Amino acid sequence: MSKIYKKTYVSPLVPIYLYADDTHLLAVSFDANDRALQKKLHLVEAVEERSEIIERTIEQLRDYFLGQRKEFDLPLKLSGTPFQLRAWEALLKIPYGSSSSYSEQAIAIEKANAVRAIGAANGKNAHSILIPCHRVVGKNGSLTGYAGGKEVKAALLDHEQKYL
């Protein structure tokens, strides 16, 4: 198994925990103690050493929070079912500063009746902010669950509106 690196980026909102191997970003998390993520990606063995991938991620996140970046260009390692991968791909198509409902996301992957499964897939997204599940809201526009909490979700949506 290759070495796994970790680093905490203190964003303007909350600390963000970054994990990478030598070639890919493995996870962007708001929870340093996310047991499911740690088990899935073997993050318990992560070391705090310099990582080029993590440094690039921090640079791009800084630019994002300064309103200078609307998309990310990083090598992500995605680990999920074919359905989850399709759901996450649909997230990448939601434009910066916009939002979409879970039902719209389900329709986008031609699974109109899979709204709850879309919500579950978004909940398994290990690359918060980079794969923008914060842009998905309830059908009536209400803020729904988010790994970083509803306050962080609201702040990210407000941030993107500010820099449109």
What is the spatial order of strands in the main beta sheet? 1-2-3
**Which structural class matches the secondary elements?**
alpha+beta
Number of helical segments with 4 or more residues:
6
Q: How much of the polypeptide forms β-strand, as a percent range? A: 5-15%
- CATH architecture label of the largest domain: Orthogonal Bundle
How many domains would you count in the coordinates?
2
Q: Report the radius of gyration as a whole number of Å.
A: 15 Å
Describe the structure in your own words.
The chain is an alpha+beta fold and 164 residues long. The protein folds into two domains: 5-65; 82-162, Arc Repressor Mutant, subunit A (Orthogonal Bundle). The protein is 37% helix and 13% strand. It is built from six helices and five strands; from the N terminus they run E-E-E-H-H-H-E-H-H-E-H. It has helices at residues 35-41, 52-65, 82-91, 102-108, 115-123, 150-162; strands at 5-10, 15-20, 25-29, 100-101, 136-137. The chain has a three-stranded antiparallel beta sheet with strand order 1-2-3, with helices on one face. A hairpin with a 4-residue loop joins strand 1 and strand 2 (15-20). Helix 4 crosses helix 5. The mean pLDDT is 95.
Quick overview:
The chain is of the alpha+beta class. The chain contains 6 helices and 5 strands.
Tell me the layout of helices and strands.
Blueprint: E1 5-10, E2 15-20, E3 25-29, H1 35-41, H2 52-65, H3 82-91, E4 100-101, H4 102-108, H5 115-123, E5 136-137, H6 150-162
Parallel strand pairs: 4-5
Antiparallel strand pairs: 1-2, 2-3
Helix pairs in contact: 4-5
